[in-house]
Amino acid sequence: MTGPMRLTILSRRSTLYTTRRLIRTARLLGNVVTRMDPMRCMLHISRNNHSISYNDREVRLPDAVLPRIGAMSSAYGLAVLQQFEARGVVAVNSSQAISRARDKLRSLQFLDQRSVPIARTVMTRDPSRLEESIDMVGGPPVVLKLLQGSQGIGVILADSYQTAKSTLGALWHLGQNILIQQFIEESKGQDIRALVVGNRVVAAMRRTARAGDFRSNIHRGGIGEAIELDATQEKVALKAASVMGLQLAGVDLLEAEQGSIVTEVNSSPGFEGLELTTGYDIAREIIDLATGLVEKARVRKPQRVTAP
C-alpha cells in the first residue's frame, strides 16, 4: 500500500502485553498507531454526521481499527466499533462477528448448524429437569459455563448432581444463564489453542492444566507446549473461525475419542503465551492482516478523504 497505514487499536490499557506488542510492531513497520480506550469515546449521531470524540477532540478516522474488546467493556466497546464501521473504517473482526462469538450459546448454535464438531451442551432454567439435562450430556462430571467469560473465568467442574444443583441454583439466583456441557474425560486437563489469522493457522500450542485444576488456560497457570496441528485439526480450526466470521480468532480444541471438538472461538485472543511458547512473531502476522484488509478496501472503493 502507498504510505503508512493509520491504525487505531481499541484497548482499555496500553500496558497489556498484546496491546503493547501490536503497537510496537505496527510502528516498527512504519505505520501510524493510536490506542483508544473505548470506554472514553463519545459517539455523536445526527443527520449525516456520525462522529467519535476522544479526550474532547473529534477523532480523525483511521484506515483500520483493531478491536481488543474485553468482557467488561463488551457492549460499549462494540458500539464504538460499530460507529467506526458506519464511517467506512476497515475492522479487523467486525462488530457482528465479535457479538456472535461473545455469546457462548449463540456461537455453539452457529458452529453446530454448520457441522463444526462441538461438545454436547444443554441450557435450562428449570430445576426439575436438572438431572435430565445432566444425563443428556453424559452424566456427571459436567462443565458449567457462564454465557460470557474468558480466560477460564466462569467455568466450573461439577462432579455430582448435587454439586451441579447447588452451583446452578446460586448462579440462577444471580440472574446468570448457564451452559451444562459434556466433560471430555479423555482430554485429561489438556486442550489446544490454535490462532487463526486470515485464512491460516499461524501458531498452535497444547495447554495442560496445573495440578488440581481442569482449566488449561495459561492465565490460570496452565503450561503451554508448541505443536503442529494435523490436517484435520487445522481444518476444524479454520472452519470454526470462518463460520463465526472472524478474521482473527483463538480457537480452542479438545482431543476427544470422536476427534477434535471446538469448545470456544475467541474474537479477541491474547497471544502472550503463544509467542513465548512458539517463538513466533504473531503481532507481525496481525498487523500484516490489517494492512492487507486496508489494501483490499482501497481497491474496492476510492480512497476516503478525511479532515486533518
Q: What's the CATH C level of the largest domain?
A: Alpha Beta
Q: Output the radius of gyration.
A: 21 Å
Which bin fits the share of residues in helices? 25-40%
Question: How would you sum up the global shape?
Answer: globular
The named CATH superfamily of the largest domain: ATP-grasp fold, B domain
In DSSP terms (H or I, runs of 4 or more residues), the helix count works out at 9
Query: Spans with pLDDT under 50 lasting ≥5 residues?
Result: none
Main β-sheet description:
5 strands, antiparallel
Give the N-to-C terminal Cα separation. 20 Å
For the residues shown, what is the average pLDDT?
A: 88
CATH topology term of the largest domain: D-amino Acid Aminotransferase, Chain A, domain 1
Query: What percentage of the residues does DSSP assign to strands (E)?
Result: 25-35%
- Beta strands, count: 16
Derived from helix and strand composition plus strand pairing, the structural class reads alpha+beta
Q: How many domains, as an integer?
A: 3
Q: What is the H/E order?
A: EHEEEEEHEHHEHEEHEEEEHEEHH
CATH architecture of the largest domain: 2-Layer Sandwich
Key descriptive features of the protein:
33% helix, Rossmann fold, Dna Ligase, domain 1, 16 strands, globular, 308 residues, alpha+beta, D-amino Acid Aminotransferase, Chain A, domain 1
Write the layout of secondary structure elements.
Layout: E1 6-10, H1 17-28, E2 32-36, E3 41-46, E4 49-54, E5 57-58, E6 64-67, H2 74-86, E7 90-91, H3 95-102, H4 104-113, E8 121-123, H5 130-136, E9 142-146, E10 155-158, H6 161-173, E11 178-182, E12 190-197, E13 200-208, E14 223-226, H7 231-244, E15 248-256, E16 259-266, H8 272-278, H9 282-300
Parallel strand pairs: 1-2, 1-6, 6-7
Antiparallel strand pairs: 3-4, 4-5, 8-11, 9-10, 9-11, 12-13, 12-15, 13-14, 15-16
Helix pairs in contact: 1-9, 2-3
